[in-house]
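Example record for the data management plan.
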Amino acid sequence: MALSFRQSEILDIARAEGRVVVEDLASRLNVTLQTIRRDLAELAEAGHLERVHGGAVARTGVTNIAWESRRKMNDRAKARIARACAAHIPDNSSLILNIGTTTEAVAHALLQHQNITVVTNNMNVANILAANPACEVVLAGGTLRRSDGGLVGELTTQFLAQFKVDFAVIGCSAVDGDGDILDYDLAEVRVSKAILKQARRAFLVTDHSKFQRSAPARLASLADLDAVFTDRPLSEHLTRACEDWGTAVHLAGEG
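Corresponding structural encoding:
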């Protein structure tokens, strides 16, 4: 399918923001709602997008979006989520941060924390927190995944088993309607499971787009966590489920 200039622009917006909304696109591109709906239908038919109620999301299939594209997606929301999460992590504490662009945002939000120890299998997190002289950074060994600076593998899992920290802060690729936390890479999933096992409290940081995506590997459930930090309300079903599970939901709104 040869894309029109407008369809190419729609695809760029979807890849950058994770989701596009019909009314918003019509306003931004100065065309009718019917034109946008037709464009989205054609893009979905060609396999570029997945239609959802009111718009579309970037199609991901069984492989993740490239790290550089993920880093730019919903970056302002990720920064708010990170600040909300960091506010629940006190000085004089220890934590593990896993691979992900939202956990990297959390690292930025921890730059003013005092006397903290951060264990990570994310080279980007380590480089960010190197700027905080009051933070001891412990970097896991393992096999380097050049695409995003992550360290994975059996060596990484064994290394993390040596720690018991106050907090685990993890990101993910998707959360399904039943509250299952999903990812693409089984090696990364094994490491993230080890991280959760070695922490007294577990937090998930994820923007709203992850609730509209799917991935093939199950990491855990929201029921296994103490809190989830996100930027929009969960579905009614998940909200009730989190209440039953005792999983706190913290919304990092525009304010």
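Summary line stored alongside the record: The first helix runs from residue 5 to 17.
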